[in-house]
Write a structure and sequence with these properties.
Structural class of chain A: mainly alpha
Largest interface: A-B, 49 and 40 residues
Number of helices of chain A: 14
Order of helices and strands of chain A: HHHHHHHHHHHHHH
Oligomer: heterodimer
CATH class of chain B: Mainly Alpha
Largest sheet of chain A: none
CATH architecture of chain B: Orthogonal Bundle
CATH architecture of the largest domain in chain A: Orthogonal Bundle
Radius of gyration of chain A: 24 Å
Distance between the termini of chain B: 20 Å
Strand content of chain B: under 5%
Shape of chain A: globular
CATH superfamily of the largest domain in chain A: MetI-like
Radius of gyration of chain B: 23 Å
Strand content of chain A: under 5%
Distance between the termini of chain A: 12 Å
Number of domains of chain B: 1
CATH class of the largest domain in chain A: Mainly Alpha
Number of strands of chain A: 0
């Protein structure tokens, strides 16, 4: 147990350093941008004169030198104040909390579904290597790896929303309905297509990995011996394949948080789903620096926790590593 | 009989695949860059034409031929892909070779840089870099190159470390061979094939990211004939049933991406003597 807490402590130090560096880089990149934040905010409107622009710049503290702005931003963070979003005019953390929750529903659904489907398809495909099923599954995965998530989303909209009228085109709630009248079923209906899109793009990598692993296990000496002993196919699957293939697959799924987040940005954009990904794009297009910096940190923590869980799982799940640790 | 056997050989088939895909990709590139911009003209008598014999991919809301726009967009995508994958290979080669060669602190810094780049989702990093460059062609190229060098750096670094500690290099050193000789005769033959294959395998990622980021509105400007622009415009017309605006350009993009990755894999197979003749 002590080893694990030391391990986590080290990781946290690493996280703090990464956060600091990533924030400095984000800030520097935004500073280097030739896009003027005030212009990005007011748009092409000519109704706003030079004086009003100055006022906006002053309100946001844009007229101070970059270094002092960064330091004041950093010291505010240490006090727990992340600043106000320019486009939502609310505290950054409020915006992020709200948007992250709706993204989380989407990402969690897609993550679970793609993990489970990908795993079983991969085992099936590896178990029936060279069969028609295997060719179909791995062919599908190879095509899917080359498919941009947003295009798959567009395809789903064309088929399921426009042609078949089964599911809504976008947004997370029906249009023209009061917030209090939105039922849970409505929310689920709006979640199905984005979640399916994200699931389908996520399946490919986990499925191909599981397939390779399954083939490797089935060619191992212990499986050949088990066959010689007369073990049935089903018991080989239960006793050997699942046990050896599941831990790396679970780890891989936790390591995929980065792609999951990236995929969510595109899927949310296609379906206008008001989650963190959609907000990222809005913040980027309109140069909302405080919000963008907040989102960068959150995405960093999100990816980092995925990696950390994967590392910890390895320590806990795999009996070979667990035994060595406690010796 | 002999010819028949030749056709069945794995190596010959791989070479045939490579040649075929290269020809198709070059044809698309040449066709795309030779289509004059004014051939994508506005033709208000033929707007929203579904796919048919006169317009294979249909026409859009101002009557522009979608096939011409798609080919133009693909050739732009291929250019972006080539520049991005070449520049990320250069970064990967410099870091991957310098790290283990200098060793110690330098190596640790390079490994940390890889971790740093991977700590934030690619999409967010590309968006940030693209904003920093003010968007456009430059933003996309720098953004994609800045995020795609990591995996290849890891591969090259591992390979260089493996060769550095291998027996034949040690023996070579004992025989008094110069560093130049070792680099030329032991490193290059192992590292260069990996770099070539790595460059080609970065390519599909690069063009998919280019289209995706352009789709979000950070990449190529709306007046460019890019696939991302075509697809993001098509979003407005989806609900009125004009599926062909999004369908064909997307399928073509996926085809290009699949062809390039198949090209890379075939090349990997024939470059490695172990797998060159294997079924």
């Amino acid at each position: 147990m002590k080893r694990i807490s030391v391990f986590i402590g080290k990781k946290l130090c690493k996280l703090l350093l990464l956060m600091l560096v990533v924030e400095v880089i984000t800030f520097a990149l935004m500073e280097a941008s030739p896009i003027d934040p005030v212009t990005a905010y007011v748009g092409a409107s000519t109704a706003i004169g030079a004086e009003q622009r100055e006022l906006i710049a002053e309100k946001w503290g844009l007229n101070q030198p970059p270094a002092s702005r960064f330091m004041s931003w950093l010291s505010n963070i240490l006090k727990g104040d992340w600043g106000d979003s320019m486009i939502y005019r609310r505290p950054v953390m409020d915006v992020i909390r709200q948007k992250f929750l709706s993204s989380l529903a989407l990402m969690a659904a897609a993550w679970l579904l793609s993990g489970i489907l990908g795993f079983f398809l991969g085992v099936l495909s590896g178990y029936k290597e060279h069969s028609i099923i295997d060719r179909l599954i791995s062919g599908y995965c190879h095509v899917l790896i080359s498919t941009p998530a947003f295009w798959l989303g567009i395809l789903f909209i064309i088929v399921f929303s426009v042609k078949l009228h089964w599911l809504p085109v976008g947004l997370s709630v029906p249009i023209g309905v009061l917030q209090s009248e939105v039922s849970f079923a409505d929310k689920v209906r709006h979640l199905i297509l984005p979640a399916l899109t994200l699931t389908f793009t996520g399946i490919a990598s986990i499925c191909l990995h599981t397939r390779e692993k399954t083939i490797e296990v089935l060619r191992s000496d212990y499986v050949i011996y088990a066959r010689a002993r007369g073990e049935s196919g089903r018991s080989i699957l239960h006793n050997h394949v699942y046990r050896n293939v599941l831990p790396p697959a679970v780890t891989l799924q936790f390591l995929s948080f980065s792609e999951l987040f990236g995929g969510a940005v595109f899927v949310e954009q296609v379906f206008s789903y008001p989650g963190l990904g959609y907000t990222t794009v809005q913040a980027g297009l309109r140069s909302d620096m405080p919000l963008l910096m907040g989102i960068t940190v959150i995405s960093l923590i999100f990816v980092f926790s995925g990696n950390l869980i994967a590392d910890l799982l390895y320590l806990v799940i795999d009996p070979r590593i667990r035994e060595r640790r406690t010796e | 009989m002999k010819l028949f056997r030749l056709q069945k050989g794995t190596r010959e088939r791989a070479i045939a695949r490579i040649v075929l895909f290269l020809v198709i990709l070059t044809a698309v590139m040449i066709a795309g860059s030779h289509i004059p911009l004014d051939s994508i003209y506005v033709d208000l008598e033929n707007i929203n034409h579904p796919p048919g014999l006169t317009h294979l991919f249909g026409t859009d809301w101002v009557g522009r031929d979608m096939l011409t726009r798609t080919v133009k967009g693909l050739s732009l995508s291929i250019w972006v892909g080539i520049i991005c994958s070449l520049s990320s290979t250069v970064i990967a080669a410099v870091f991957g070779i310098l790290g283990p060669t200098l060793g110690g602190k330098a190596d640790a810094v390079i490994s940390w840089l890889v971790d740093l780049t991977l700590s934030v989702p690619h999409t967010i990093l590309i968006i940030l870099v693209s904003i920093a460059c003010g968007g456009g062609f430059k933003g996309i190229v720098v953004g994609v190159a800045a995020t795609h060098w990591t995996s290849l750096t890891r591969i090259i670094r591992a390979e260089v470390i493996r060769i550095h500690t291998s027996e034949y290099v040690m023996i070579s050193k004992r025989f008094g061979k110069s560093r130049r000789f070792i680099a030329l005769h032991h490193m290059v033959p192992h590292v260069v094939p990996q770099m070539v294959v790595g460059t080609i395998l970065v390519f599909p990622h690069a063009i998919l990211h280019e289209a995706s980021i352009t789709f979000l509105g950070f990449g190529l400007p709306p007046h460019e004939p890019a696939i991302g622009v075509i697809l993001s415009e098509s979003m407005k017309y989806l609900t009125s049933g004009q599926w062909w605006l999004a369908f064909f350009p997307g399928v073509c993009l996926i085809c290009v991406s699949i062809m390039v990755s198949a090209l890379g894999k075939s090349l990997e197979q024939i470059m490695d003597p172990v797998t060159a003749y294997k079924k």
